[in-house]
């Protein structure tokens, strides 16, 4: 609109209206235009008053003094939709001022405003009509008028409005109404609460009002229905709101209601309230102080499945509070949960296994409580179930319990390893995570590893190395590293490609980890021939025995220790460095392979051996007499042994000096020691 006009003498207001397409340009004139018979002028006049009043309380009071309130109250019922809308907007914005509000109380305007809450009206009308009622509803007389004029039903409907301002205003009105006056005839209080919380979840304003509404209805729970309790649960899940309710005694009242014989659906939803509240650590502490564990343990023995299921879910949620775990055990809750595993309901079994998983986590006493109740035996049977979550929960609990040796032995005696084989083939990620973790713990037992192999579990375990899920892959690698402590098991896994897959994983920037490295090392440690072929190094702790072979880097030939070695320092004796090229070891080895018709040559048959043969023989002999040395492969058939020896005399304080690393010369001056990293040692290791 155009530029503002100057202030005229007949009005005390500091501001003026923007020009209208009519002659009046001052607030007083525009107020007079509210009585015009022309609809276009009425539309513009109401619009101008709304814009003017919106700028501050001083303007609202000014328009009030000019007598705008009565004609506006009349125009909100005008037949013209635009006139009606603009009049409601002007009245709604003015009602936020206390002087205007007091003046409105003297007018019989509430019935007309309630009429504007009809779903046939524009959403803008709903916004400003509820804004007006929100201001008026703080007054006791106005509350009664709103009730008497059946204002609650349309307000409840508007809780479903897509407009957040309409929702907010409606909530505030209902909140103001229920604080003093009991709901009147025709008003379903519970449905109101349901919609309030459903809508308030999406609002940016505080949920305090809706929580007070919940508290209001908690004062008399005799007529609460299941749907309402779901809403109460939503409200109580917020820590701040829950504390407000708790301070007012609402939680104590809810706890009393839970234990009162009632309709099972209502009781079930009441327990769900507790589970919802317990999602917060602060709330769990308050619930524990209210001895909620005692209430929940009592509910575990009721007949209704839905109540027991909800109770298990609440037990699970509360078990994140350490003190609650102990309380459930002391109150006899653990055997009660274990018994629920025998129920036919799949949903209840799932909830019970989840509760046991959380109850036993990091709690040894609870673990033994489950064991003493026979829970481990039933959990093993749950591994054959059709519900993935139940299988995952059972595997998780068994994995926790198997950390105790006496329990692990009992778990294994009930066929846990066999039961875990099928879950290893699952496509459910959580099943795989928990199953492989459980298997890694159980496989600490040698019999378990053998059973896993005979049950056909090694191949599906190795196949999981293809997984790109981080936690699954970590657990699989851990299980493989444990299983690899048995040489037959390690060899079997290598047959299924575990070695190649682990090498590939460890070359990947994204997939490699300390777990995959450990798995590869464990496999290699159980197959020293392969380890030496791949790494060209055996540590002093790697003890070789008959059956070890050196395949070389590219498997040119193999030197086995299969035949008994009767050795005089043989293999051609000392060879001078300058005459090394004349030493006929290649021809001799070719003759042996021809005689044997094999590339596998027993080391005891070699009479002319080079560095790699002599180092292998030395390693074999040293390991056989209980001493130790390394075996390291170099380039061009070089290999050497390293030993750690103490050098010099003990120090003055009686302590031995640090051991030094020496390389044993087996080629040029057999038996002599070359200190590592010296020029002589380096010359021995290289050409």
UniProtKB/TrEMBL annotation:
<feature type="domain" description="EDR1/CTR1/ARMC3-like peptidase-like">
    <location>
        <begin position="569"/>
        <end position="673"/>
    </location>
</feature>
<dbReference type="InterPro" id="IPR011989">
    <property type="entry name" value="ARM-like"/>
</dbReference>
<feature type="repeat" description="ARM">
    <location>
        <begin position="415"/>
        <end position="457"/>
    </location>
</feature>
<dbReference type="Pfam" id="PF14381">
    <property type="entry name" value="EDR1_CTR1_ARMC3_pept"/>
</dbReference>
<protein>
    <submittedName>
        <fullName>Armadillo repeat containing 3</fullName>
    </submittedName>
</protein>
<feature type="repeat" description="ARM">
    <location>
        <begin position="332"/>
        <end position="374"/>
    </location>
</feature>
<keyword id="KW-0677">Repeat</keyword>
<dbReference type="InterPro" id="IPR052441">
    <property type="entry name" value="Armadillo-Ser/Thr_Kinase"/>
</dbReference>
<dbReference type="InterPro" id="IPR016024">
    <property type="entry name" value="ARM-type_fold"/>
</dbReference>
<dbReference type="Pfam" id="PF00514">
    <property type="entry name" value="Arm"/>
</dbReference>
<dbReference type="InterPro" id="IPR055164">
    <property type="entry name" value="EDR1/CTR1/ARMC3-like_pept-like"/>
</dbReference>
<feature type="repeat" description="ARM">
    <location>
        <begin position="150"/>
        <end position="177"/>
    </location>
</feature>
<dbReference type="InterPro" id="IPR000225">
    <property type="entry name" value="Armadillo"/>
</dbReference>
């Amino acid at each position: 609109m155009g530029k503002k006009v100057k202030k005229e003498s007949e009005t005390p207001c500091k501001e003026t209206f923007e020009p209208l397409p009519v002659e009046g340009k001052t607030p007083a004139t525009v107020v007079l235009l509210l009585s015009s018979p022309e609809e276009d002028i009425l539309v513009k006049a109401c619009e101008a008053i709304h814009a003017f009043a919106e700028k501050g309380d001083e303007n609202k009071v000014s328009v009030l003094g000019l007598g705008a309130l009565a004609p506006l109250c009349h125009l909100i019922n005008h037949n013209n939709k635009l006139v009606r809308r603009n009049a409601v907007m002007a009245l709604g914005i003015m009602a936020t001022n206390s002087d205007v509000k007091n003046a409105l109380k003297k007018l019989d305007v509430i019935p007309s405003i309630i009429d504007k809450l009809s779903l046939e009206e524009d959403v803008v009308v709903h916004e400003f009509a509820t804004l007006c009622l929100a201001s008026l509803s703080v007054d006791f007389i106005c509350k009664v008028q709103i009730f008497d004029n059946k204002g609650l039903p349309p307000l409840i409907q508007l809780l479903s409005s897509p407009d957040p301002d309409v929702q907010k205003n409606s909530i505030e009105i209902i909140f103001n109404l229920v604080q003093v006056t009991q709901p009147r005839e025709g008003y379903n209080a519970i449905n109101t609460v349901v919609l309030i919380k459903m809508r308030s979840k999406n609002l940016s304003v505080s949920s305090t009002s809706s929580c007070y509404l919940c508290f209001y209805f908690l004062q008399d729970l005799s007529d609460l229905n299941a749907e309402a309790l779901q809403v109460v649960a939503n409200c109580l899940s917020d820590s701040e709101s829950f504390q407000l309710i708790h301070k007012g005694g609402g939680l104590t009242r809810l706890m009393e209601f839970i234990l009162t014989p009632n309709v099972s659906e209502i009781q079930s939803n009441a327990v769900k309230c507790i589970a919802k509240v317990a999602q917060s650590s602060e709330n769990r502490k308050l619930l524990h102080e209210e001895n909620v564990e005692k209430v929940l343990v009592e509910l575990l023995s009721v007949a209704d499945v839905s109540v027991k299921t909800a109770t298990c879910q609440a037990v699970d949620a509360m078990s994140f509070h350490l003190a609650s775990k102990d309380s459930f055990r002391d109150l006899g809750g653990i055997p009660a949960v274990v018994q629920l595993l025998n129920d036919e309901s799949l949903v209840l079994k799932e909830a019970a296994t989840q509760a046991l998983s959380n109850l036993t986590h990091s709690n040894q006493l609870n673990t033994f409580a489950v064991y003493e109740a026979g829970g481990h035996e039933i959990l093993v049977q749950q591994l054959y179930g059709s519900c993935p979550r139940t299988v995952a929960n059972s595997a998780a609990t068994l994995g926790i319990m198997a950390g105790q040796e006496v329990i692990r032995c009992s778990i294994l005696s009930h066929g846990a390893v066999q039961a875990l084989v099928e879950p290893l083939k699952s496509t459910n990620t959580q099943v795989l995570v928990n199953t492989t973790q459980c298997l890694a713990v159980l496989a600490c037992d040698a019999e378990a590893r053998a059973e896993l192999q005979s049950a056909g579990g090694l191949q599906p375990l190795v196949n999981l190395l293809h997984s790109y899920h981080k936690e699954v892959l970590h657990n699989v690698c851990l299980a493989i590293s444990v299983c690899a402590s048995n040489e037959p098991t390690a060899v079997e896994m290598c047959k299924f490609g575990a070695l190649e897959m682990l090498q590939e994983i460890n070359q990947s920037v994204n997939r490699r980890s300390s777990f995959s490295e450990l798995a590869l090392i464990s496999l290699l440690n159980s197959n020293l021939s392969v380890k030496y072929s791949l790494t060209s190094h055996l540590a002093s702790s790697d003890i070789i025995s008959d059956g070890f072979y050196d395949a070389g880097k590219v498997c040119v030939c193999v030197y086995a220790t299969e035949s008994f070695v009767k050795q005089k320092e043989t293999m051609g004796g000392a060879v001078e460095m300058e005459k090394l090229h004349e030493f006929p070891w290649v021809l001799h080895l070719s003759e042996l392979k021809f005689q044997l018709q094999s590339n596998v040559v027993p080391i005891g048959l070699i009479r002319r051996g080079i560095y790699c043969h002599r180092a292998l023989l030395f390693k074999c002999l040293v390991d056989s007499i209980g001493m130790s040395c390394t075996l390291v492969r170099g380039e061009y058939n070089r290999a050497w042994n390293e030993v750690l020896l103490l050098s010099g005399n003990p120090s003055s304080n009686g302590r031995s000096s640090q051991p030094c690393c020496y390389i044993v010369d087996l080629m040029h001056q057999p038996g002599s020691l070359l200190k590592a990293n010296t020029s002589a040692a380096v010359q021995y290791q290289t050409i």
